[in-house]
Amino acid sequence: MNEPLVLSSITGIPLIKPGIDLSKVIFGALNQNGIRLTNRDVIVVTQKIVSKAENRYVNLIDIDPSKRAMEISETIQKDPRLIELILSESQQVLRMKEGTIIVEHRLGFICANAGIDHSNVKGLYGDPEDWYLLLPKNPDKSAQGIRDDIYGFCGTYVGILIIDSQGRAWRNGTIGTTIGLAGLPGLVDLRGYEDLFGYKLKVTQVAVADELAAAASLIMGQTKEKIPVVHVRGFPYSLRDADLQELLRKKDLDLFR
């Protein structure tokens, strides 16, 4: 495919409140930015506005920490209420150090502090420091819902990517990473394809959704840019149904556990 890959920031999206019709907001913003969707376009959405629309807010004053949370708190010097929240969103605690817990999230991926967010989170009442935002309950379902709504609005099939900033086991810093998707591949298997010299690839599988997530994250930024949605045209692979599971390495093949 020779079509250039073009990523465009979508501006003008208001602060998202619980219960808002996020699909309608995104589609309206696309129109306001002069974007007319075509089949094979991809819309990348930051996790934060999905969580806000789905009212994934939690106030620490409502959390009663368990004995285990209290014990961990003494080790890593974090609020035991926040630790309890992290434990409730996790399948397993893998590593701990002061200020950080590495867990297997209930959605299946490895991340710090169960992906619970505090930046750019403003609660509805009380002390702003007490408010946190959880990841969506089912990001794949959230992505599929947006995709279905977009098709209903304009009759166009697009891919939807929901992303979050996460660290990696062997690198410093965070990177935009897929946590939910619909209508585009997470993984593209190139095994059997020939390289420039006729050698057939034997192990190459490309996490194309994560590659796109990282590119979109560059445009979105991490602080006060207010660009929670990116439009993508020219994605160099065919769209298809997929979900997060194809990106997650099986435990028996995960050498970092």
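Above is the first protein from milestone M3; the second protein from the same milestone is given next.
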Amino acid sequence: MDLHHIRAGAGEPLLLIQGMSGTHRSWGDAFLGQVQQDFDAVAYDHRGIGLSPATSDPFTLVDLADDAAALLDTLGWGSAHVLGISMGGMVAQELALRHADRVRTLTLGCTYCGGPGSVMTGPATMQKLGAAMTSGDRDLAIRAGYECNVSAGFREDPAHFEAFRAMALAAPAKVATIMLQMQAIAGHDTHARLADITQPTLVIHGTEDEMLPAPNGELIASLIPAAELQLWDGVGHMFWWEQPDRSAAALRAHALQTAS
């Protein structure tokens, strides 16, 4: 599958795996600009999303992990540092488990592993997002997505929404594909297998995450041997969007110090 991707920067190879409905644009210029100073960074669109080929067939997160491994082949990379956020963090878990030799270091952000102790999105948030996505009102859908993905403090600056809206309009995600992604997430469960992850792992989670609450990050870090956990107080689901400099610095410190 010829997945759309962008590549820029120099240094150690870095694969960036986005979450549900996310595209290569969802990383934001501020964060990408930072990581491209230290890494040869690739951001891509999952199958059916953004500028990648459309799909109407169901898929699993294992399929998406195999897509990521195939993209590494396309890039000519034997291995890479991997950052996966939200659904992309679930894909990154499967990538690290199924293709362990392809992952140098693993950074998991605002994600979920399934199984005992995991916490899915609350019903009020799901209802708000579902109603907005199926309303046919694009602006309403973007607004709801924004409000559920960032913290209350971040929302206080109107300029932050305008930047988010511009990103969302630049590479729209099809509702039908988002539904397929939701089906794939529903089947995700790495809980019993996370102990098999041997790559150096950093787990980042914001304490104001409405989409996948912070106990998920604590659980994942407790299950992966020697994983480092960073809980960011007052930060929402899209931590890299709210705090791009801090996010890039955390990734840099974890990946490059480990590599050295």
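Note on the second protein: The first strand starts at residue 5 and ends at 9.
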